[in-house]
Structure prediction request, 266 residues.
Amino acid sequence: MKVGFIGGGIMGEAMIKSLLAKKVAMPGDITVSDVSQSRRHALSKGYGVKATANNREAVDGAEAVVLAIKPQDLSKVLSEVKGLSLQQLVLSIVAGASLDSLCRGLDHSCLVRAMPNMPARIGEGMTVWMATADVSQHQRELARSILAALGEEIYVSSEKYIDMATALSGSGPAYIFLVIESLVDAGVHIGLPRDIAEKLVIETTLGSARAVKVMAKHPAELRNMVTSPAGTTTEGLLQLERGGLRSLLLQAVIAAYNKAKNLGAK
Ligand SMILES: NC(=O)c1ccc[n+]([C@@H]2O[C@H](COP(=O)([O-])OP(=O)(O)OC[C@H]3O[C@@H](n4cnc5c(N)ncnc54)[C@H](OP(=O)(O)O)[C@@H]3O)[C@@H](O)[C@H]2O)c1
Prediction:
């Protein structure tokens, strides 16, 4: 599968790495364009892909064109790569860029909008995506194989869910990283060596998430299983409830969602 990437930054590189690791594409199938000479050098040297400064070159002959640039660079890129054929699928991961704005900017209707997240860099991402009506079944499968290389993927039937996913799974890793950082600092505060505190928190976070997934029980039920009457956990939980943890998380997600919607409205 010939894939052209426009933007070879953090996410562009993560996608190239995953496509190669999962053998969805071979190095010779991938062309990446980037304005940065050092990024082009790093990508061609690191992955054996073709790297160019010319966005048109990345697009020419590509079955799938991945837009992996920042929102502020999008309009320039769209005007440069205009004139694609319907056989060319455009897959955008640009935050806030609606299918309608991409369609107008490119004068092209064969589009997929996706919102991956940062763990895609290690093949453990969560991507939410949708396609326009002009995307053929074959192209959908193409898009799915690209996104599945990044980790889990879920197709949604309405674009509003992409803005919601931006606030939840897109921004989510940052929330979890903050929780991990805070718990490690708390462990250090009560006297644990930092390396031990880090290991305890990382394994607890991973194990707890996996327990929710594997045991398929409501999180409250799992929480009750580790909360004994008048025990230590209930003391800790009391402080989290006092501090308003639930409502804080709710407010964080609502704020991120509003921001995502505003980005799309611009
Ligand atoms: N990072 C995430 O976790 C994440 C998650 C989901 C979605 N996204 C979305 O993915 C997109 C890319 O994010 P990122 O974190 O990978 O950004 P990034 O690291 O800044 O990568 C973008 C790359 O594109 C290059 N570029 C800028 N203008 C260009 C142009 N006109 N033509 C070709 N290349 C150009 C940039 O070069 P310079 O740096 O020299 O400008 C940079 O190397 C964003 O729209 C973001 O919303 C990111």
The mean pLDDT is 95. The chain is about 55% helix and 15% strand.
